[in-house]
# Entry
Amino acid sequence: MEIKYGWGGGNSESTCLSSGVRCYTGGCQRCVTKRVKCDEKHPCCSRCARLGSACEWVRPRPSLAARRRGFGPIKYRQTNDWTPKPILPKSKENVKDDVTHTGGLEGSVVISSLSSSRASSPSRSGFKWDLSATECLPPSAQDRSIVNPQNVASLDFMAPIWLTPATALFLVDAIGESPSLGSDDGQAVSFHHSVLAPLKSTRSPPFSAHALFLRHAWDKRIALHFLLAVSHSEMAIYQGQGTRPPAESRFHLQKGLELLVQVWNPVALSDHFEVMLSLLYMYMFWMRRDRLTPSRLRALSSTILAYVRLYGIDGLCTDEDLAFAPHHVNVPDKVLLSRVFIYLYDRDGFCSFFDCGGSFASYVNENSEASRKIWRLSRTAFLCLPRDNLGSDLTGIPEVEEAAVLQVYFELIRIHQRINSYSQRGSLDDEAMPVQRQLDQMRKLRFQERSSIFYRAASLEDEEHSPSLIEMVTVSLFYAVCIYLCRSRSPALGERPVPPEVQTALSGLVTTAHRTISRGSVQLLERFQWSLLILGLETNDPIHWDWVGKNITDAAIREVFHVCLRAKKQSGGSISMATIRQLVSGEV
# Structure
């Protein structure tokens, strides 16, 4: 009796020894379960297409070499350069830290100390960094397998339907080649948790949303690759190596893209969370380059919108009927998905100001009630964590302490996107009036409970109730949004005579921005960096120009500021929003 074995790829069939009946081992899961032959057409085989059923595929089995050595990193040893490291006993204070730190990385002592200082953190108790889900790059070699433009057509053909508008995302080689940083994935993870996550938030690391995403990305291979791409890139920027991503970052970005195009039929909320989190990390990666790339960010925005519409992600987040939900739906996954949804909305609205996207943010703004439901659900992310991680006192959780402040912050983000649409798409003039009334209402209620942040931000005498960093950032954003509304069409930024409401907002923004920078670290807070940009383009004081230029730390926003400031000086002291967007897109 002839027996044939196959592992996917082609029509594989074998003769079962027990019954003598032919069994088909290749094809989609539904055909294999029914024991029928599958033609293995992607993304949907002919049988499933004819029956109208979901065609599910499993990931290919790893190669024999990968199964023999496991999923750990391959050791690259060069006879001339490589020497074994001395075996030293571990100190007791480093036993809890599962991240390995190798030599050869400048600043590794700082990362090691930060990592050891957080080893006893309650949020990491019982949690181990396991990098077995990804592959490691040779420490001194550049990856040469980056996608080239010749392969874009084939990738676009093979990609799922929701990735079709994202052709520009696959042009990874457009960022150019760069030397290796010499860091390993363990160091990148340690840096992400200890340095990057706190800098991206106004909170302590246990309550940082990016630390929360980090803890839920380990069993999600696609998101983990994009996370490591961001971490290696941010480590290079942090060490002064420039905004060009190192070889390690490009390697993980390429691997993540290769896996992303294989996502054909996500079903569970955890699968949607992995895809949405991967898209968020792509935003974080491309927004941190030396200049904004409108085509790539627009493609990313269109991709997110296509994915959300295709799978009804907003409906999954707002569905309150959990009693009759499928077995794969659970509250933590839903909360995490809502959290990522809001972060993507924030990033896309931010890029929409520069006309680098905004299609997804505009879609979310169309249904204000649904967006507010998703926002309220996303704020319960830390309440779903075990009590031993948070403590018994709920008032210690920032989501509870800063509920009123966070609500004002979210409303300002919504207003910002409404002004973007009003400024770019030729909306009616009457649409600016509701926005102006909403801002006036916030300003008039400054002494009430909801807007007492304005009083605390302006008060210097009451040290016991000094404003927090998020309050200072929110007030700065409020003043910047007021200026943006008045200057969104005409008159231009910096144009004289200055309207009274603009002068009042500018004075408040200058005062609050100085106090915010003295309050805490704001280098990676995009909304505050945008507020500084508005301040620098509205004022005509050279002293303020120098101060803003020194305190805008984001490379892309700093480049926009310097380019627009030169154009403003050449045009007589004013610059319109249309000119700013043309300068960003390279049309001027």
Observations:
- The chain has three domains: 1-60, 141-399, 402-585.
- The mean pLDDT is 76.
- The chain is about 55% helix and 0% strand.
- The CA atoms of residues 12 and 412 lie 58 Å apart.
